[in-house]
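Side project, low priority. Logging it here so it doesn't get lost.
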Amino acid sequence: MQRGRAGDAAMSDAERARIKAFFMAERGYWRPWTETMLDACPGFVQHYARYAGHPARSGPLTERMVELIYVALDSSSSHLFEAGLHTHMKRALEVGASRADIFDVLHLVAVQGIARVGQATDILGEFIDLDGVPAIDERLQARIDRLGAAHALALRSVARLDPGYAEVLLDFVEQGGPGTGLSPAERSLVQLALHACLTAFDADAIRRIVPTALSQGLVAAELLQAIQLGAHLAVHGSALGANVYRQVAGTAAELKG
C-alpha cells in the first residue's frame, strides 16, 4: 500500500514502519507529532532521530546520567516541557537513578536562577555609588569562598548590597537539596547542561563550571556530551508546530466537508 499526497513522494507502509522503528529505537518514544511529521516530512523524522540519538549512543556518559540531564533540561524554568519530563524521569528511574538523584537534579534546576541574580547585581553595581556600602562581613565572605565555583554563582555584589539575601541564598544552595544523590562531578554535568542549553545559555556560568568540572576528574568528552544533549530542546518547537498543523488542517478539512 502506498501513502502520500500530490507533490509528495509516495511512501510504502514498510518504509513508514522502518522509519518509525528507527526513531523509537533512537529516541524511546512515538507521539502524535512524530506521526504527523512522518506523513509530511519523513526525512525530518529519520535524520532527527539519528542526530538526536548520536550523543547518547556514542558519548561516554551512562544512560542514567543522560536521562538525569534530560530531566534537568525538561524541568528547567526556561523550558517546562512536561511530556518530555515524564518520559525521561520514568526512564531515569528504570535505569538506576534514585529518588535522591531526581530531587538533587530538581534542586539544581532551582539554583539555576540564582546565577542570573548574581550577574545582574554585578551590572547594577557598575552604575551605583558603593562608597557608603559596607564591605562584606568576613563570616559571609568565608561562606562564599567555601562555595567556590561549584554552582557558578557570582555572589560578591549580592552579599555587599543585601547580605541578608546572600545568607538565605547560601542556605538554599547548601541545605535545599536532599543531602545525597549526585556526586559533585555529576552536579557539574547537570549544571553545564542547564547553562549551555539554547533556552538559558549563560556563557559566564559555563566559564565557571568547565574548570570546576575538569578539576573534578571529568574529561572533555563527558562535558561535550552534556552540552550536546541540550540541542534537543529545539525540536519541541517543531513538535508544537506539527501538533498545531494537525489541528488546523483537520479544522480546514471539516470546513471544506
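Brief comment: Residues 99-126 form the longest helix (28 residues).
Revisit when time allows.
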